[in-house]
Amino acid sequence: MSVLTLQACPTDCTDSLEEVYFNECAGEFHYGEISKLYVAGANAADFVSPDLLPEWTTRLSDTGSGADDIRTLVGIGELPEPEQTETSVSGNRTIYSPKTFNLTFDVDETNDTNFNFMLATYCNTKKKVWIEMSDGMLYGGKTGIELVLKGSQPLLKGRKDVLKIIFKGKWESASDPLRCISPMF
Question: Which of 1, 58, 124, 169 could disulfide-link 103, Cβ–Cβ 3.0 to 4.6 Å?
C-alpha cells in the first residue's frame, strides 16, 4: 500500500457522520491538471511536515546525488477516478477492494537529460512521488506515493506534433493520497 494513513472506521455497525462545510458567498474550489511531479527514490526519508518549505528546499535537486534528493518533473498530467471492485459477501454485506490509481504525466521537454531519466525508469525500481496540481494543491502527504514510474517516448508521424515523454504509474491504496497546500507554489 502506498498511502499508509487510513481513515479510522468503526469496528461495529455504528455510523460516524463527519462534518461538511459550504460557503454560499465564498466557496472553496480546486482546479484540475497535474503540473508537477516530485520524484524521490523509494528509500528517501519521509517528511515531518510536507507543507513547510524548508524541508523541500534542502531536498529539491535536479542534479544532486543525495539519498533524499527529489527531482521535479514539469508537464501535464491526470489521475482519473480509481478503479475499485465491489464484492457481495455473506450476511447481505458488501466489501470493496483497495483502489487502483493510474497516473499519467506528459513531459514535453525531451532533452537528453530528461530522455535519460526516462530510460532509467525501465529498471522497474520503486519511487516516491508527490503530485502538485496547477492550483497549488500537493498530494502525497509525509510519505509520498510509492509506485513504479514507467516512461516511454512515442515517435509521432506529424511534423508539427510535439514529442512527449509519457510517464505512467500505478498503485493500490485503501484511500486517496493526503493533501496540503504546496509550499513551492
Answer: 169
Collect all residues with Cβ–Cβ distance below 8 Å to 153 and sequence separation of at least 6: 110, 115, 118, 163, 164, 165, 166
CA proximity to 75, closest of 129, 144, 2, 3:
129
d(CA 178, CA 30): 15
For residue range 116-131, list pLDDT tens digits in order: 999 999 999 999 999 9
79 Cβ contact list (under 8 Å, min separation 6): 34, 101, 102, 103, 104, 131
Distance from C-alpha of 15 to C-alpha of 134, rounded to nearest angstrom: 36
Q: Residue 140 burial (CB < 10 Å; 0-12/13-18/19+)?
A: buried
pTM: 0.92
Dihedral angle sign, alpha carbons of residues 42, 138, 74, 169: positive
Question: Contacts for 15-18 with beta carbons within 8 Å, 24 or more apart?
Answer: none
So what's the pLDDT on residue 1? 41
Q: Which three cell numbers stand for residue 105?
A: 504525466
Q: How does residue 5 score in pLDDT terms, banded at 50, 70 and 90?
A: low
